[in-house]
Amino acid sequence: MRFRPLLFCICLVGCTVDQPPLLVEDVVLTRPIPGVAMGAGYFTLRNTSNQSIRIDRISSPDLAAVAMHESVLEDGIARMYELQEIMLLPRSAVVFETGGKHLMMRYLETTPDIVTLQFFAGPAMLLSVQANTRE
Known about the structure:
Oligomer: single chain
CATH topology: Immunoglobulin-like
Order of helices and strands: HEEEEEEEEEEE
Number of helices: 1
Shape: globular
Mean pLDDT: 89
Helix content: under 10%
Radius of gyration: 19 Å
Largest sheet: 9 strands, mixed
Strand content: over 45%
CATH class: Mainly Beta
Distance between the termini: 60 Å
CATH architecture: Sandwich
Low-confidence stretches: 1-14
Structural class: mainly beta
């Protein structure tokens, strides 16, 4: 009888499931306004691993182009710069949000209801997610 708690603890340790090293949460993809082909993407990118992760490209088979950007305020003027990479430190998160880091997405002639985003480090695709587009 006294071995039951120990057996239960061993089962809990042995049954845990590891999280993937890279997670994307709270994805919002905006549709372009009429007459404009550009939309934006916002989300939280989370590194669950003990290693740094470098994202140097985000692409989509559903879009004409995807680029990582950051908006900054310099001398009272809002400027937007393209980012070549995002570095996620171990066990950290980077937030893509309005007025900060975000995706600029150029849509094809039609706007899909669901867009696949693929996150790359060099030639390796680390993660692929699908999200609904919205107004």
